[in-house]
């Protein structure tokens, strides 16, 4: 009998079924054939499991307060119309360890099930503990040593709050019509629960995804100066939808959602979209350190000095080179007490003490202090800076507005600056380019130019030289005029003297236009805001078992949370962008106006390049296009990334969709696409969208979405500190117009052009606040996962073919890395470095780096918009 028990334990350990028949056979052998009595309770199989849970600091493990029941994925219970349900098993005897300050507890667990239970396809967890916990993963071992993985990564809240158990599916993917019968009802119920009923204010623990307008930007209860239009749902102010929080309306305006009295960093988003506690404390800690370093000294200087402006470029460089006290000052800590929970405040304080942050000189001024003044560098940043997807080839001269008004730039203005070519030849050779903000800004300048802001609508012409560098040849600055409708002046480059100094002022005003467009349109609208409706639709319409949900999930991590934080402190009335950008109070109104020109199909990289005249269609190229000239750093690297993503997406989709009919018959995909078009981007429902009836439609849409959430966002975000961290290079507003000859201001300008330039820039406090913001936005967070990486591939999918394809995707991206490094070593490609000596690495995947993350690296493509 002792031998029999030992053998039985070995069988259990291997997950072998210990049925009555098995036991009798074993016992018969070891007892020489003697009869052995067994009870019916042994007529069961054992499934062993491992559950991994993360806990917040200071909170106890759930232990026996948490239980799990398995659902069979193969055996159908006709009474419940779901898979067979096991008895409960409880978490006991967990083993804990700490990793990066987070306590991780692993539980071994056993389930006793009937011999015909089948293969588990899902489980439900009940948390009767007093605290929430983060369920990282679960692994089950069944007879025949088969392993089943559950990639959970989700918060499990106490049952007394949720009133329902938490359901998790295994990592096996099924199209809707291929779902095992035992899981069909569970699949439907889960999706229905995630949609909610559209009523009530959301509670922290509610996993509900619903849409709302941007009706939370204003705060009319604080006065008329905080009234902002509702964006979305109207022809006047179209906009993508955001996630709904259900806060009650304000007391003053029933259409506007009320706002908390103080900034609330603990804002609602569905639990699975929240930052990890570690990331949230790191993000807020970085924000505080940047504020302490840049903003507080500037605020103090306002009290101690007579001037609110920087007096010299050397003084501005001292922002970065001087030693500053990194200790969190008392009044900052007091403010934070009302903004974040006590537990999070402790983590932030600890993070600041343990990890002092260094603020290096921004790259644009590190190697060559005045490279930013160089015309070649000015042009290069339109191809390799942080806003490289706006410049266009000029198709007719002179440039013309949408209303038919002609530019005042004449052929004679630029004829002597085309390196010996006539204008006609330069146009025929596709060598004239334009950065044009004229039509976007002219209708808004009367609203913008208040409270000391001085902004023009700019139009800049550039000439492509033989070495592929861009030479600016003319800048037109325009203002509305009550008498003539418009007042414009053209500025031309000059090597020295007064004209050269005026040219620098004109370039600064162009940079202001470009900075505002970059933050509001290229960055916020075309990545953050555009992607959020896709996330909501994916959660509401695609089951977690759906292969496309599994494909997209890594590219949605933390985006809804960072967007919610942005609405709370960045883009709201009185927020940081209103304080630092020249567009001020009409910033989001302008963003809405330019959303009118947005079309999803034109967000495809090849189509965008062709539309802007920066590439030609070429069916023989993997990307389908050929760049107009090779030395376009953003374009060249972006196309390589695009091809790698599209190859991966195409390979993935062919596993699940053998033909077009399989896309048409996928009712979850059809509902997903319909909801994106008609609800999430409902204000654009009548514009051109693909019909989502072919494999090609699906692959193109998914490639565009993944490209936008990963590479495009990386290209416009993580280089901000390197270029805009030094405000003279990319000022965000001007406090003076260009002085007119014969005026007192012109005399002041002539006395000291550099000092006038600095006085034209934002005031000291505004400028340092802007630097602090972009430092935080440019800093990679330590828990980011980059394109081509998965923290645990076996948990993500059980499909070996998909795993191999993903490894190929990783290898393809590493080949892209090699190409980028080769380009950066090629001396003929002058735009890869430029006068400022900044190698173009904003689209360097950094996939091969599996070590530590974080910091101002200026490279790396995170999977998602998470900062």
Index terms:
867 residues, disordered N terminus, 30 helices, 15% strand, alpha+beta, five-stranded antiparallel beta sheet, Nuclear Transport Factor 2, Chain: A, Lipoxygenase-1
What do you see in this structure?
A hairpin with a 2-residue loop joins strand 5 and strand 6. The radius of gyration is 30 Å and the shape is globular. It is built from 30 helices and 19 strands.
Largest sheet: 5 strands, antiparallel
CATH class of the domain at 364-518 and 730-764: Alpha Beta
Unreliably modeled segments: 1-41, 302-306, 324-329
The radius of gyration over CA amounts to 30 Å
Strand order of the largest sheet: 5-6-1-8-9
Architecture of the domain at 364-518 and 730-764, CATH level 2? Roll
Broad structural category: alpha+beta
β content, as a range?
A: 5-15%
The CATH topology of the domain at 364-518 and 730-764 is given as: Nuclear Transport Factor 2, Chain: A
Please, what is the average pLDDT? 88
How large is the count of helical segments? 30
The end-to-end distance, rounded to whole angstroms, is: 63 Å
| Overall outline | globular
Helical residues, percent: 40-55%
Q: Please provide the count of β strands.
A: 19
Organism: Davidia involucrata (Dove tree)
Keywords: Dioxygenase, Fatty acid biosynthesis, Fatty acid metabolism, Iron, Lipid biosynthesis, Lipid metabolism, Metal-binding, Oxidoreductase, Oxylipin biosynthesis
Pfam families: Lipoxygenase (PF00305), PLAT (PF01477)
Cofactor: Fe cation
């Amino acid at each position: 009998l002792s031998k029999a028990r030992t053998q039985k334990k070995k069988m259990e350990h291997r997950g072998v079924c210990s049925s009555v028949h098995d036991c009798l056979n074993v016992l018969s052998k070891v007892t020489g054939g003697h009869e052995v009595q067994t009870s019916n309770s042994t007529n069961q199989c054992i499934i062993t499991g491992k559950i991994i849970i993360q806990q917040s600091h200071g909170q106890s493990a759930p232990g026996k307060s948490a239980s799990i029941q398995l659902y069979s994925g193969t055996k159908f219970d006709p009474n419940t119309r779901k898979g067979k349900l096991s008895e409960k098993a409880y978490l006991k005897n967990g083993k804990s360890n700490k990793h990066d300050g987070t306590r991780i507890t692993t539980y071994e667990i056993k389930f006793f099930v009937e011999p015909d239970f089948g293969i588990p396809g899902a489980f439900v967890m009940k948390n009767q503990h007093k605290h929430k916990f983060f369920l990282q993963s679960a692994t089950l071992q069944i007879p025949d040593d088969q392993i089943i993985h559950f990639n959970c990564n989700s918060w499990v809240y106490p049952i007394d709050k949720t009133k329902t158990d938490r359901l998790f599916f295994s990592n096996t993917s099924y199209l809707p019509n291929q779902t095992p019968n035992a899981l069909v009802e569970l699949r439907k119920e889960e999706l229905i629960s995630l949609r909610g009923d559209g009523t009530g204010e959301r509670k922290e623990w509610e996993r509900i995804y619903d849409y709302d307008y941007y009706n939370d930007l204003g705060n009319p209860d604080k006065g008329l100066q905080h009234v902002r239009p509702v964006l979305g749902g109207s022809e006047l102010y179209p906009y993508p939808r955001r996630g709904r929080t259900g806060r009650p309306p304000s007391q003053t305006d029933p259409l506007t959602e009320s706002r908390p009295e103080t900034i609330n960093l603990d804002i609602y988003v569905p639990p699975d979209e929240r930052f990890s506690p570690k990331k949230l404390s790191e993000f807020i800690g970085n924000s505080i350190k940047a504020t302490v370093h840049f903003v507080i000294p500037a605020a103090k200087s306002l009290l101690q000095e007579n001037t609110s402006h920087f007096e010299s470029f050397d003084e501005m460089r001292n922002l970065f080179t001087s030693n500053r006290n990194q200790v969190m000052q008392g009044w900052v800590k007091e403010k934070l007490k009302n903004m974040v929970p006590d537990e999070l405040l402790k983590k932030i304080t600890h993070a600041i003490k343990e990890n002092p942050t260094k603020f290096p000189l921004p790259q644009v001024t590190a190697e060559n202090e005045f490279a930013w003044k160089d015309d070649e560098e000015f042009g290069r940043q339109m191809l390799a800076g942080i806003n490289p997807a706006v410049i266009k080839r000029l198709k007719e001269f002179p440039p013309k507005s949408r209303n038919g008004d002609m530019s005042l730039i004449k052929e004679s203005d630029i004829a002597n600056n085309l390196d010996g070519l006539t204008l006609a030849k330069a146009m025929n050779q596709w060598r004239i380019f334009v950065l044009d903000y004229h039509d976007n800004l002219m209708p808004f300048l009367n609203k913008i130019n208040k409270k000391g802001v001085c902004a023009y609508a700019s139009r800049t012409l550039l000439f492509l030289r033989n070495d592929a560098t861009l030479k600016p040849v003319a800048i037109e600055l325009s203002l509305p005029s009550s008498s003539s409708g418009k007042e414009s002046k053209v500025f031309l480059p000059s090597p020295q003297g007064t004209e050269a100094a005026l040219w620098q002022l004109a370039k600064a005003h162009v940079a202001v236009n470009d900075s505002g467009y970059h933050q509001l349109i290229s960055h916020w609208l075309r990545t953050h805001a555009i992607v959020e409706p896709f996330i909501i639709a994916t959660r509401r319409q695609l089951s977690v078992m759906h292969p496309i949900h599994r494909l997209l999930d890594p590219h949605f991590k933390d985006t809804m949370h960072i967007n919610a934080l942005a609405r709370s402190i960045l883009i709201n009335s009185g927020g940081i962008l209103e304080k630092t950008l020249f567009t001020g109070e009409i910033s989001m109104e302008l963003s809405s106006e330019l959303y009118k020109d947005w079309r999803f199909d034109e967000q495809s990289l090849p189509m965008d390049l062709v539309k802007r005249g920066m590439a030609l269609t070429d069916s023989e190229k993997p990307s389908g296009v050929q760049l107009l000239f090779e030395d376009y750093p953003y374009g060249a690297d972006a196309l390589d990334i695009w091809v790698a993503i599209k190859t991966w997406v195409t390979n993935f989709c062919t596993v699940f969709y053998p033909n077009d009919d399989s896309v048409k018959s996928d009712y979850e995909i059809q509902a997903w696409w319909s909801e994106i078009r008609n609800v999430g981007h409902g204000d654009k429902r009548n514009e051109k969208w693909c019909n989502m009836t072919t494999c090609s439609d699906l692959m193109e849409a998914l490639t565009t979405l993944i490209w936008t959430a990963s590479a495009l966002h990386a290209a416009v975000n993580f280089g901000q500190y390197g270029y805009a961290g030094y405000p003279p290079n990319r000022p965000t507003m001007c406090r003076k117009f260009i002085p007119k000859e014969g005026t007192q201001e012109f005399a002041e300008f002539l006395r000291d052009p550099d000092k006038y330039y600095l006085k034209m820039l934002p005031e000291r406090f505004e400028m340092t606040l802007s630097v602090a913001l972009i430092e935080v936005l440019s800093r990679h967070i330590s828990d980011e996962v980059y394109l081509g990486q998965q923290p645990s591939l076996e948990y993500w999918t059980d499909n070996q073919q998909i795993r191999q394809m993903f490894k190929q995707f990783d290898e393809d991206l590493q080949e892209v890395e090699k190409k980028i490094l080769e380009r950066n070593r090629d001396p003929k490609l002058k735009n890869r470095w430029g006068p400022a000596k900044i190698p173009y690495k904003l689209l360097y995947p950094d996939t091969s780096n599996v070590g530590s993350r974080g910091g101002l690296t200026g490279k790396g493509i995170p999977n998602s918009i998470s900062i």
